Amino acid sequence: MAMTKYGAQVAIAQANRQKRVLRETLAVLSADSALDTQSSLGLVVRELDAVNRHITVDSVEIEGASDDYHKLADHLVEQLHWPRDAIQVHPQGSASTRTLIRAPDRSKFDIDAVCQVDISRIEARDPMRFFEQIGEALGDWDACAKKRCWRIEFANRSYYIEFTPSVPLDKIPAQIASHIRYRTTDRYRESALAVVDTPSKQWKTSNPAGFTQWVADQAKRPLLVSVLLEKRAVLASDSIIPVPEQEVPLSDTLRVAIRLLKRHRDMAARKGLIDGDLKPISVIIVTLLTQCYEGLADNGSRYAHPIKLLADLAELMPGMIEIRQDGYWIANPTVEGENFAERWNENPERKATFDAWCELLIDDLKEILNETDERLLTDKIRATFGTTGASTSGTNSGLGLAVQAPKRVYTPPATKGLA
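-> structure tokens emitted (419 positions)
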């Protein structure tokens, strides 16, 4: 059988990985039968599961966001006199992939939403007019225009909603579609949308539902030899698709890895170990980890323990970055030509910050796996992921976030273009 694209990338990353510290550490622990006892790695699993539960957004907040979706849709129907079945509102981004996490400083988090309008009934030939029309209808909420969405703040909420107007891509008239930015890939083509790119005042191809389905499809592939916990059922859908429940069991290794790495990134920025303005954006972490996971699955990899898989994902993730003629590439798997690393090529310090964060991540995981004292191990995990002083009983009641003074600061090296 021919090797798949991501399978080949994983094989190259495995051959070229420069730091084998995690694999070597895990080999030593396995030789000492640490996996067969409930010490060391067993404690790591319990503590990381507690971190995963601690950073989960509360279900009450998720229900509130779903209610606000309904209000927004109803308001647009009323203001713009659209047929009720001509509009769909559904989550995108971290909320839809179930990788949404709360911020370490308890600041507001964003929930991305797509407002999909059926232009077989609603004329939207002028992208800017379509975008502005929705903004005008959202005036009661003091919506703020962004590059491709309207940001809506809600009083007395722990979140804000970034609301992206869109139309089904296959409903765009042919003469307009010929000028659209980006094309769809063969994967998940049926869910592709056209969104308004306000800087260019043109339509742009997007596929948030396809991206979400890609993550979900890979997460279902069994890389663990044994299933540790039951997976939650997926919520049913309708024209207003609710924000999915954000609780994710430890057996859902891909999503848990994404959540833990996003949290590690946020804590590294909060401690001043990396520049918060340059920290890796979430879609890059999600894309690289999912590509890596898919490649491992395609190559038939199997793991007896979730920590082994987490360690491999962390080490192999940087090796999934492509280098093309025009620079670094992290391709959107559902939109041809869209490069999530575009800003790395515009500002090399962003790539340097990503590299610095990866070094921090590997070093922290190595220290965690090397620690044999249970109390010190617990303290290390909680300090690394920002749950010091927090309850680990499965609730979010205790949210103390004592931040220790950093013992090291990684400064991105000076660069002269691409390495």
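The radius of gyration is 22 Å.
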